[in-house]
Design goal:
This protein is mostly beta strands. Helices cover 2% and strands 53% of the residues. The strands form 7 sheets. Strands 1, 2, 3, 5, 6, 7, 10, 11 and 12 form a 9-stranded mixed β-sheet that branches. Strands 14, 16, 17, 19, 20, 21 and 24 form a 7-stranded mixed β-sheet that branches. Strand 25 and strand 26 form a beta hairpin. The longest helix is centred in the last third of the chain and has 8 residues.
Length: 369
């Protein structure tokens, strides 16, 4: 708190008297878009009565420092509020702070015989949060640091990502951390910084094969196989591998591209597929998909190559699921009248006994017990 002597402005026919103006905080820093209050008090001789009170802003005009009444400045229209009185409180509130509000503010009051104005001022600094992310493009598992700065000495910074609170300003990047970040100060969450963007890059993950049919799903008809995945940057290279029942000893590269069209499934062969998705950061393989033609009776016959025993799986063939193609994958389900049988990849490996070498253009099968 600072108390200053007020300059006395003598009116004609009067004698000198003493008055004071006290600013509770002569140096204020506040966030753009918020409100601020200049707490102020003033005193004067007991035999005087205050007639007028007003706040001014200091401005340089043609090299001359002048005090301009706030009520005469269009930029302050409907944003200033004199919350004091004509006794001893001279407090002023300014709402919806703007960059141009930064500056020096003065108070003046007049009685019947005298006029006083503060010799010193309240200096206001209007600032806004400035968000920075180090670094803005990272790879998964890299360290990320969020930093929020202002001209004010403010504490309790809060962060938001796509509108949701962020727990810590430092973290190890994950794929889901990509997005838009803003910072604010607790209690002033409406005064947000401009957004900064974090781009987390990672190799293909969650790679899977989606199988759809061009027409009625029966033996000999064409299917479309799509290699689905998530990656950043997007996968730009796809490789397909296939092994047939007639040659389970190796899996060879058969195609490229994210989508394989018109892959006809013949009744004479059982085929196993894997797709490999790749971007500049790495590659990943899908779970194995086994396409098995069904006989008219709906029976799928498999030979356990490791044990040398023959197994049979019975599939009920009804009018609602008269498909002639089965997929062995992760779990059992029936969709759109298509029989889809799925087994976990580890079970396929146990049955077929193979291992995949991703560095090779073919897959080798280990047929040992």
């Amino acid at each position: 708190m600072i108390t200053v002597l007020a300059l006395l402005i003598l009116k004609a026919g009067t004698v000198s008297a003493m008055g004071t103006v006290t600013f509770e905080n002569p140096d204020i820093c506040a966030l753009k878009g918020t409100s601020v209050e200049f707490r102020c008090s003033y005193s004067y001789p007991d035999d005087e009565t205050v007639q007028k009170a007003a706040w001014f802003k200091g401005q340089s005009q043609y090299g001359i420092w002048k005090r301009v009444k706030l009520s005469e400045l269009p930029s302050y229209e409907n944003r200033t509020e004199y919350v004091g009185d004509k006794q001893h409180d001279c407090s002023l509130a300014i709402h919806d702070l703007q960059d141009g509000d930064t500056g020096h503010y003065y108070f003046r009051f007049d009685t019947e015989n005298f006029g006083w104005r503060s010799k010193t001022s309240v200096h206001l600094t209007v600032t806004e949060p400035n968000a920075t992310v180090y670094a803005d493009t990272v790879r998964a598992r890299d360290k990320v640091t969020l930093e929020c700065r202002t001209s004010c000495q403010l504490s309790n910074i809060v962060w938001f990502k796509d509108g949701r609170p962020v727990a810590q300003p430092e973290f190890e990047a994950k794929a889901e951390d990509s997005g838009k970040y803003v910072c604010a100060f607790e209690g002033h969450e409406s005064a947000l910084s401009d957004p900064v963007f974090l781009d987390v890059q990672y190799p293909p993950m969650n790679v899977s094969i989606e199988v759809t049919y061009l027409d009625e799903p029966t033996v000999g008809r064409s299917v479309i196989m799509t290699c689905q995945n998530t990656a950043n940057p997007a996968a730009d290279n796809y490789t397909w591998y296939r092994a047939s029942a007639s040659s389970l000893s190796s899996m060879s590269q058969v195609d490229s591209g994210q989508m394989v069209l018109n892959r006809s499934v013949n009744a004479a062969d059982t085929e196993l597929y894997i797709c490999q998705a790749r971007n500049k950061l790495g590659e990943s393989n899908s779970t194995e998909v086994l396409l098995i033609p069904l006989s008219e009776e709906g029976t799928v016959d498999n030979t356990d190559r490791a044990q040398g025993s023959k197994t049979s799986r019975q599939i009920t063939d009804t009018p609602t699921n008269s498909s002639r193609i089965a997929l062995i994958y992760d779990q059992s389900l029936i969709q759109q009248g298509i029989i889809v049988l799925m087994l976990h990849a580890s079970l396929i490996r146990k049955i077929l006994g193979f291992s995949f070498n991703s560095s090779s253009s073919s897959l080798e099968w280990d047929l040992s017990p």
